[in-house]
Write a structure and sequence with these properties.
Helix content is 31%, strand content 22%. The protein is globular and about 70 Å long. It has helices spanning 51-58, 81-87, 108-112, 114-119, 125-138, 155-167, 185-202, 213-219, 237-242, 247-254, 261-266, and strands spanning 6-18, 24-36, 40-44, 66-71, 74-75, 91-94, 173-177, 205-210, 222-227, 230-236, 307-308, 314-315. The chain has an eight-stranded mixed β-sheet with strand order 6-7-8-3-9-10-12-11, with helices on both faces.
Length: 320
């Protein structure tokens, strides 16, 4: 990672939820990573590992318990109300559910133009409408769609509307939170191609959150693998994909089917077994120890640190 070009820096981020008598849910527990300007960081892991909470806490949609987030040198978590309002023009989010994230009572022009209204970025109604038309055209829709309601669109079209809304204020950083998981496979490819085209044209920096490691590898420059609130492996996307080291990463990759039936029939792989333990009051040691075939005594006593294995490939494991 080139520190001089680092655009987003997340250090020791923690987000806990008090769940009453049950204890403390450690959704994000000391997570650190950085993203270079104009690059895409993929954040992957099974459902419930804390990926979405990371994205929402970075954008201050959740209040962090500790840690720092800097966007282009600006302290996000330490910003006051006025500073944060200005920051929202620089960072936006594309949500997982393209229907639930759109107000069903508003027409598309009001949904896409909401950021214009909040920040007063237009001089008259005609200018506002023209900019909305431009955004719709940018994501593959037309101005005829502007006066319709969300229920009149398909899932893929609704996600395009969500993307248009996220790009309305010309942000520099966008969190894509499972932005394709609710869509059909053929539509997923269209949305991925759209996101990559916009990233190239607008110079956007993405945090791309997903559970599909193959898709993340296709779109990302770097990958961080998350398990039960912590990052267990991170590095260059090709390096992590071609040379996985952590047993959890290996398990995720082993679960990805290939298009070659002959290769698939003879492929040796160790699949993940068991369910993800509860993140509420996690036991000491490595979070993955209970599901790991290589676990030793130290794994249950002290959590391993992320250690650079070379070429910026970091892994948190005692038995590698």
């Amino acid at each position: 990672m080139n520190l001089e070009s680092t655009f987003l820096t997340v250090n020791n981020l923690k987000k806990y939820f008090n769940v009453g008598r049950r204890g403390i849910l450690k959704a994000v527990d000391d997570v650190s990573f950085s993203i270079e300007k104009g690059k895409i960081m993929g954040l992957v892991g099974e459902s419930g590992c804390g990926k979405t909470t990371v994205g929402r806490t970075i954008l201050k949609l959740y209040d962090a318990d500790s840690g720092t987030v800097y966007l282009g040198g600006t302290n996000v978590l330490g910003s006051n109300k006025t500073e944060y309002k200005a920051l929202t023009r620089r960072m936006q989010m594309i949500f997982q559910d393209p229907y639930a994230s759109l107000n069903p009572r508003k027409i598309i022009s009001d949904i896409v133009g909401e950021g214009f209204d909040i920040h007063k970025t237009y001089s008259n109604a005609n200018e506002r409408l023209e900019r909305i038309y431009e955004l719709l055209n940018m994501v593959g829709l037309t101005k005829e769609h502007a006066n319709r309601f969300p229920h009149e669109f398909s899932g893929g079209q609704r996600q395009r509307i969500g993307i248009a809304r996220a790009l309305a204020l010309h942000p520099e950083f966008v969190v894509c939170d499972e932005a394709i998981s609710a869509l059909d496979v053929s539509i997923q490819a269209q949305i991925i191609n759209l996101l990559m085209r916009l990233q190239d044209e607008l110079g956007l920096t993405y945090l791309f959150i997903a559970h599909d490691l193959a898709m993340v590898r296709h779109i990302s420059d770097d990958i961080a693998v998350m398990y039960l609130g912590v990052i267990v492996e991170k590095g260059n996307a090709a390096e992590v994909y071609n040379n996985p080291i952590h047993p959890y990463t290996k398990g995720l990759l082993a679960a990805i089917p290939t298009a070659d039936p002959d290769y698939e029939a003879q492929r040796e792989r160790t699949l993940l077994t068991g369910d993800v333990p509860s993140p509420i009051n996690p036991k000491p040691g490595c979070r993955f120890a209970a599901r790991c075939g290589m676990s030793t005594e130290i794994c249950t006593q002290k959590a391993p640190d992320l250690i650079d294995q070379g070429n910026g490939h970091f892994v948190a494991c005692y038995n590698i």
